[in-house]
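Quick check before the chapter quiz. The format below is the same one you will see on the exam, so make sure you can read both the input and the output lines.
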Amino acid sequence: MEANFCSWVFNTGLPANAQQGHTVFDPAKSSTFKLLEGETFNISYGDSSSASGPVGTDVFDVGGSTVEVQAIGLPDEVSESFITDSASNGLVGLAFTKLNTMEPTQQKTFFDNVVSELSQPVFTAQLKGDSAGSYEFGNIDTSSFTGELNVVPVDSSQGFWEFDSSTATINNQQVQIQNGRAIADTGTSLMLVSDDLLAAYWDNVEGATLNEQVGGVIFPCSAQLPDLNIAVGDKMATVAGENFNFATIGTDTTSGESCKCNLVGFMAIANTPQSALVVCNPLEAFPSPSMVMSSSSRTLSFSRPLRHPLVLHLTRSSSSLLA
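Here is the expected output.
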């Protein structure tokens, strides 16, 4: 499974039924749009969703951060999950250009294009569960968090915001993640981790069982879920246990109401040779940005105490489970 990143938007080239409920870009109404003849994109994501189609350029503005000639995908085909999500009208793609899937000529991503024009070569992500979050380009709003930002070196050689993540703790039990590496990805709330960490977490939850029918771990809704402390470089970030309760999925005649947690075996949904922990957290609202991404210094920063889920993908260095 491979993650790829480029900017694409809902547009008039999609079937009419796919456009319904979305804000749709019409290239014919833009005096600055230019079709890139022969250029296409085909992008797939960790949840098996995808988008594909031709490519063009236009003025691209994200909250006042503007690229005058930005390559954008104009899909004529998108996955059903994008169609049914009326809050989504496309994706920006904030990884590095190396992962851009436009071909035969690879195009620069939005952030790589705009970074030289910003007052600081950074963007911040403030993710919330009960209201709209925000991204800010070129500035770190210190009023949005308390305490100090912790800076972690980033390895961008593979195109990801990648960093070391070799340790986790659950109820003071430490789990070593051999050759642990992670990538930060604000486009998803999934977490992929090793079998050892998967087992260590659920060993601490009485009544937790893997249920193939619901595609995840279920547990009594009254169960106390432990916090997960995860290494981000040489710092530790905390994912609060209450954030792992994803939904009520039914009632067990013996134990009462059952809940589905967002920790499941990755093999069950991806048929990959390496199993992992998948965390789909309903993000909670806290007054601090999840992360600050710096392009020039190749660092990632986060505020402490971090009590909402930092969006990470944890993998072994040899693994291809990067979403």
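If your answer matched, good. Residues 142-316 form a domain with the Cathepsin D, subunit A; domain 1 fold (CATH 2.40.70.10).
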